[in-house]
Amino acid sequence: MAESGVNPTAAALLGLLHEGPMTGGQLMAAAERRLAPYWSMTRSQVYRELPVLAERGFVRLGKPGPRMSQPYAITAAGKRTFSRWLAEDPGRDTIRNPIALRIAFGNLHSPNQLKNLQVAANEYHTDALARVREQVKNAKKEGDTYDASALEFAVAYHRAALSWLKSAATG
Fold first, then answer.
1. For the chain, what is the domain count?
2. pLDDT, tens digit, for every residue of 88-115?
3. Domain range spanning residue 19?
4. How crowded is residue 116: how many other Cβ atoms within 10 Å of its Cβ?
5. What is the C-alpha R_g of the chain?
6. Whole-angstrom Cα distance, residue 116 to residue 111?
7. CA 45 to CA 99: how far, in whole Å?
């Protein structure tokens, strides 16, 4: 099977463009709304990938809109490439948890720093868990079982993080 030749960020943009033409800003908003609970993309990544996708014929540019916003639409080649990407081995997860990294160096923190770190992380994961549960509920209400299933990963992640924070050595 031939590889798609696109990275996950480019593939995510192609996937989002299946919903219809969007500007870079609209793609960022769609990524934030649909993917952020389990996949991060930065504005710079989006704006770096869009010209590459256009150059490779995977998206086409529409007529510039207000403030020179440039809409992009997926092409047939982009749809084929996205389908190939979906069929590829996804590879291994990459875990990059900034709280775990800091706790690993806990002996170099003051007890107050560690406590503040734990409190802030608890607040973040509690709030994020509430938000993503609401997203799951909405996805299910809209009949989007695939989106709901992916969002359930984020629910489990935040639950696991909260459970781990209770037992983490923070002084």
1. 2
2. 998 888 888 999 999 899 889 898 998 9
3. 8-87
4. 13
5. 19
6. 9
7. 24
In angstroms, the CA 45 to CA 43 distance is 5
Q: Please check whether residue 93 lies inside any domain of the structure.
A: no
Mean pLDDT within 34-41: 93
Kindly state whether residues 79 and 12 are assigned to the same domain.
Answer: yes
Q: How many helices (H) and strands (E) in the chain?
A: 7, 2
Per-residue model confidence (pLDDT) at position 65: 72
Same domain, 46 and 106: no
How many Å apart are CA 152 and CA 139, to the nearest integer?
Answer: 11
Which pLDDT does position 169 carry in this prediction?
A: 67
Q: How far is CA 3 from CA 37, 81, 135, in A?
A: 27, 9, 33
Q: Among the three residues 52, 67, 87, which one is the final residue of a domain in this structure?
A: 87
The enclosing H or E element of 65 equals none
Beta strands 72-74 and 59-61 are antiparallel
- Percent pLDDT > 90 in the chain is 77
Boundary of a domain, candidates 43, 58, 87:
87
Please say if the pLDDT value at position 1 is more than 60: no
Strand residues in 46-146 grouped as ranges (E): 59-61, 72-74
